[in-house]
Amino acid sequence: MEPINRRCFMATALVVTGWAAAGSPAAAAPKSDLWDRWLAHDPDSDASVDHQDWTTFLERYRSLPGDGISRIAYGAVSASDRSALDQYVAMLESTRVSTLSRGEQYAYWVNLYNAVTVRLIVENYPVDSILDLDLSPGLFRFGPWDARLLQVEGEDLSLNDIEHRILRPIWQDPRTHYAVNCASLGCPNLMPVAFTRANTESLLEENADAYVNHPRGVALLGGSNLVVSKIYDWFAADFGRRNRDVIAHLRTYALPELDQRLARRSVIDDYRYDWALNDTASV
After folding, report:
1. Largest Cα–Cα distance in the chain?
2. Cis amide leading into 169 (omega within 30)
3. What's 36's DSSP letter?
């Protein structure tokens, strides 16, 4: 089997240990746990949130090098663009998200998650990995995900709240894992534009295609060993839980050659994930 970078292995071990210590099952991510306060929405609302400032930021600082992994030029973000990012996040925090339609809400939460994640890296740059941001409360916590970084409609929120208590349980769409970005090389790409109600479906499909057909998503090593992203282990419940269910999901997006090889597989041999920062300086 292809050797796995020691940094990647140690980071993965840290993640598993941290989640286990936090009360989740070993080798699993936080569970999908509905915060029903965020079920409120208006199906008849035609109101929209303006995400152009986030798109402008991405146009300036996001790139897609030849290796197919999106990166951000964190070290190049100007003071004025950092201020604009702060203002964009503040605008989202002041938005009455519970009055929006479901489609508008999904785009809102994804963009908020991604913008705050990028802002965290910019504020603390240079760092080698988002795991270096030891902001979460508690002795056995790690990274920034449990820190209460936001306030929306009077509620203090963490990144884990957005992903595991709002996005995953309300929409129950495994493609959400292709939408939120954790500023790491192992993560699905940060898309080049903001999510909107109109483009959400196309962006989810585009990024699922890109990730599944990239070696960090799915790889057959040595011609036989099926190695996939740790995402499909951490969040196995979202993809059907069993190896066969995960493989069926992967085949939905796999290009013909990969699909043919996956068709002969029923077991996943290993998982991997690279927590190194998705920084343009690492190209």
Report:
1. 53
2. no
3. G
